[in-house]
Amino acid sequence: LTKQLERLTEEKAAVMNVVNQLRGNLSGFASSKDALNNALITMANQINDREKQFREIMRKNELIYDETESRKTELNELKNRINLRHKRLVFLQQEIEELERRKENFNQELVFLTELHQKLISQSNDSELMIKNLLDTVGYLRRQTSLPERAQTVTSTSFRKSGEIEREYEELSGRYEDDDKAPGLPAPPEPSFRVQKEEKSPDKNRKYKILIADDNEGSRVLLARFLNDNDFMCGTVADGFEAFEELTKNKYDLILVDLNMPRVNGLEFIERIRRSKQYQEIPIIAVTGFNIEGLREKTLSAGANDIEFKPIQKDILLKKIRNLLTL
């Protein structure tokens, strides 16, 4: 029993050593667990910091993208403005060339009129001398003979030479007011340079002329056909530049102009028309398919008398035209 008790005591001591070792290992494991938890907490904090940095970078990228898109939009607007300025420059150059051509034509006409004026002065001087000689001859013949045929022959021949000057005939006829007038004086022909006065027909019988400016050929044709059916005469052009040229060639009583046209748009055309004294009084109706806010006020302030939005209501448009033409 004593030996067994000693053996049990030794086994107990051995077990206690094992237990103490296990307790030491558990303490080490607890320390490792705490260190591992601390490491995990540190890694979690680092991950949060990296996530914040990533979000900040994404926000900056979005700002850079928005700024890039804004710059692209500004660049496109600048390109459109440059293209518009270029078109206006080309139009102004064409106008300058047209003005130069007209100036050259005016200079040629001025030279021609100057030469014509000199010729008329020379003919007038020659005619005055001829009339004086004619009067002396007629007076001599009336005193020397009573044959009217001879006087008629002389005067007829002289007037055929100076028949374009009616004033001379009136002076000649005035010399015979108290002398029973010269026998057989022929009536002078009508001067070729006399300007015939244009007789204006009454408004009720007159066909008013309307200029239609629209880059859409189908709209031009349909609108012109409608107005022709309502006793109006129409001319059609495709843009504002052609409209200017047409106004210099023909006279119109009213203008229908589309706002959205190439080369010279409707607003610019209206503003330039109103700056010209020659066309200030022509009524203008603007036509457009864009019914946006402020467009009516902008168009009317540019100088248009009225505006009609597409699709056009023909009865209303016809009423507006007749009101502007006071029909």
How does this structure look, described?
The protein is of the alpha/beta class. Helices cover 67% and strands 7% of the residues. It is built from 8 helices and 5 strands; from the N terminus they run αααβαβαβαβαβα. β1, α4 and β2 form a beta-alpha-beta unit. α1 (2-144) runs antiparallel to α2 and α5 (240-249) runs parallel beside α6. It is rod-shaped.
Topology record:
Layout: H1 2-144, H2 148-161, H3 166-174, E1 209-213, H4 217-229, E2 233-237, H5 240-249, E3 254-258, H6 266-275, E4 284-288, H7 295-302, E5 306-309, H8 314-324
Parallel strand pairs: 1-2, 1-3, 3-4, 4-5
CATH architecture of the domain at 208-324: 3-Layer(aba) Sandwich
Q: Strand tally, please?
A: 5
Q: Which series of helices and strands comes N to C? A: HHHEHEHEHEHEH
Radius of gyration: 52 Å
CATH topology of the domain at 208-324: Rossmann fold
Main attributes?
alpha/beta, 327 residues, rod-shaped, 5 strands, Rossmann fold
Compose a concise summary of this entry.
This protein is α/β, with parallel strands linked by helices and 327 residues long. It has 8 helices and 5 strands. Helix 6 links the parallel strand 3 and strand 4.
